[in-house]
Design a protein that fits this description.
This protein has 647 residues and is mainly alpha-helical. The protein has helices at residues 14-36, 40-48, 53-81, 92-126, 135-153, 182-210, 223-255, 268-302, 309-322, 338-350, 352-366, 375-398, 400-406, 410-440, 446-472, 489-519, 558-565, 585-601, 605-624, 634-646; strands at 577-579, 630-632. Its EC number is 1.10.3.-.
């Protein structure tokens, strides 16, 4: 099949054609708007070429919100398709594509950028740094993620989306059973985005270990920074495994190797093992930063220092270690034997212990606290009982004998969402609301935020709790339809109603951003929450250099202690500040990588060679470039500080 023929969509329908039109009109509107308002220069100077960790964090945030709604549309389509028996809203082929893209978009292209949005903005501020260790690498990391996300998301209008599930098991993902280029998109787009994530992991580990302000020892770091350190340590060990697996899968599909085939010496279970050696640590890459967010928020709004700081740190380190020892519980039913199943059943249940320690620490922090139920606090408190349900059902799934009943049923779908949505989505919304005034200089509306919370929290349970019963009654996941005689109809209809409620909650979240942007006061202090950590010690908006004088911290909650004692964190005189220059090379290089990936997907070898040469030219340019950054003078610092104090 020639590659031009493969541009065709294998399972076209009116929804895809409507999406094509919508994408085209959106692109035209963006280009026309930038041209009319003469913003091309501003876009290039301030955003496309920025190496400022704060702006990169905001770009991660905007990308994550966009992908949240992209994946949410898939979720609504799935729930609508299964709402009633014998539904024909989606064909079997289209349903396969929808649940595949939903999983990848939500895990890789929504949850991951959300946590890196908060890490990018918050971590350097919490440790008193002026930027991350490698600013240009940080920019390249973002643009690699973004290009990987865009490459994956054009699949459904050019060539067809992947349809082998978000786990993309072989031989289902092989050429014989997945003939379109959809799985090629999966392999290449995840490679590109995953490389960006791996580079971010190295960058943040270096930043946290080497760029802390004086006095901030490892055991005096805020818990969110600790969560970022442990999560990025997992990234550095886990993502190379995914890279190798995707490379082998790409070679199987494009070059006829037999790593994962069931003939000619291949082993399909090799893919399952490699995928979950990455895939289960990935769960904790997402969850650990969420734990850090909740720790910051609960401590702030309970008006108490976090109970059991050392045990919280120890539990995160233990979780990061144990996360690599549980992957086989994802395929207890696939024949590895009783001894192996028993070992991984024990490790699976063991990892619940350090997680339980955290739950008790948060509850004891709340005990006798002066609790203020702000929107971030509502998400943090609501998370505890909902996530506990996810944890308990996880232990049920961890019992290998019982897993023969639960495996591949809707019970598993319910469990997964009861961990990931409260454990990640709730945390990201809470963190977004909490740090929003530091990011944008105004606060989100509390009343609308609380409406959104109650819609999301209640509708979440209405959506996913019925799935436990449907799964126990025998409903398999990934079924695109079922007959009325199965009795699954009422439970699935209830799930669909809950999904509509979730959609309303997320629409309210967006409306809150719009409403607050128009009407919220800009006259807020740099510390509107009366918070405890160093990011609140700098101005609103945060200047490019973060801190005019590097703070000196001598406790875990240095900012809170300084406020209570009436002392200053900033000692000494202003000195000129060295800052990195902006660069367009990361953006240009990532565009070339996007073109390289697209060409590789369709086996267009001449463009592959041309773009490969372009990528190496960008690398050579950076290698020979002489760029020592620039200095911000003392006079400019004084003027900026005077202006910000006045504001």
């Amino acid at each position: 099949m020639k590659f031009f023929d493969r541009f065709a969509i294998p399972h076209p329908n009116i929804a895809i054609y409507a999406s094509m039109i919508a994408i085209g009109l959106t692109v035209i509107a963006i280009v026309a708007g930038l041209t009319y308002f003469k913003k091309w220069g501003y876009l290039w100077r301030e955003w496309l070429t920025t190496v400022d960790h704060k702006r990169i964090g905001i770009m991660y945030l905007l990308s994550a919100l966009l992908m949240l709604f992209r994946g949410g549309v898939d979720a609504i389509m799935m729930r609508a398709q299964t709402a009633v028996p014998d539904n024909t809203l989606l064909s079997a082929d289209h349903y396969n594509e929808v649940f595949t893209t939903h999983g990848i978009v939500m895990i890789i292209f929504m949850a991951m950028p959300f946590i890196y949005a908060l890490m990018n903005f918050v971590v350097p501020l919490q440790i008193g740094a002026r930027d991350v260790a490698f600013p240009r690498l940080n920019a390249l990391s973002f643009w690699l993620f973004f290009m990987g996300a865009m490459l994956f998301n054009i699949s459904f209008v050019i060539g067809g989306s992947p349809d082998a599930g978000w786990t993309s098991y072989f031989p289902l993902a092989g050429n014989k059973l997945s003939e379109s280029v959809g799985t090629n998109y999966y392999m290449i787009a995840l490679q590109i985005a995953g490389l960006g994530t791996l580079l971010s992991g190295i960058n943040f580990i270096t930043t946290i270990l080497k760029m802390r302000a004086p006095g901030i020892t490892l055991m005096k770091m805020p818990i969110f920074t600790w969560s970022a350190l442990t999560a990025n340590a997992i990234v550095v060990f886990a993502f190379p495994v995914l890279t190798v697996a995707l490379l082998m899968g790409t070679m199987d599909r494009l070059f006829g190797t037999n790593f994962f085939t069931t003939t000619n010496g291949g082993m399909d279970m090799l893919w399952a093992n490699l995928f979950w050696v990455w895939g289960h640590p990935e769960v904790y890459i997402l969850i650990l930063p969420a734990f850090g967010v909740y720790s910051e928020i609960i401590s702030t709004f309970a008006r108490r220092n976090l109970y059991g700081y050392k045990s919280m740190v120890a539990s995160m380190v233990i979780i990061s270690f144990l996360s690599f020892l549980v992957w086989t519980h994802h395929f207890f039913t696939m024949g590895q034997g009783a001894l192996t199943n028993s070992i991984f059943s024990i490790t699976t249940m063991a990892i619940a212990i350090p997680t339980g320690i955290k739950i008790f620490n948060w509850i004891l922090t709340l005990w006798r606290g002066k609790i203020e139920f702000t929107v971030p606090m509502l998400y943090s408190v609501g998370f505890i009982p909902i996530f506990t349900i996810g944890g308990v059902t996880g232990v049920m799934l961890g019992m290998s004998a019982a897993d023969y009943q639960y495996h591949n049923t809707m019970f598993l779908v319910a469990h997964f969402h009861y961990t990931i949505i409260p454990g990640v989505v709730f945390a990201m919304i809470a963190g977004l609301t909490y740090w929003w005034p530091k990011m944008f200089g105004f606060m989100l509306n509390e009343r609308i935020g609380k409406w959104a919370f109650w819609f999301i929290a209640i509708s979440f349970n209405v959506t996913f709790f019925p799935m436990f019963f449907a799964g126990l009654n025998g409903q398999a996941r990934r079924m695109y339809t079922y007959s009325a005689s199965t009795g699954f109809g009422p439970l699935n209809l209830l799930s669909f109603i809950g999904a509509l409620g979730l959609a309303v909650g997320f629409v309210l979240l967006v409306y809150n951003i719009y409403y607050s942007f128009r009407y919220s006061s800009r006259n807020i202090s740099s510390d509107p929450w009366d918070a405890r950590s160093l990011e609140w010690a700098t101005h609103n908006p945060v200047p490019a250099y973060n801190f005019a004088i590097i703070p000196e911290a001598d406790s875990i909650e240095a900012f809170w202690d300084a406020k209570q004692k009436g002392s200053s964190l900033f000692k000494g005189k202003y000195k000129k500040i060295h800052m990195p220059n902006n660069s367009g090379v990361p953006f240009i290089m990532s565009c070339l990588i996007f073109a390289w990936g697209f060409s590789f997907i369709f086996s267009m070898w001449i463009p592959v060679i041309i773009t490969t040469l372009g990528i190496f030219v960008c690398m050579a340019h950076r290698s020979f470039e002489i760029d020592h950054g620039h200095y911000i003078s003392i006079e400019e610092i004084e003027e900026t500080e005077k202006e910000l104090r006045g504001a």
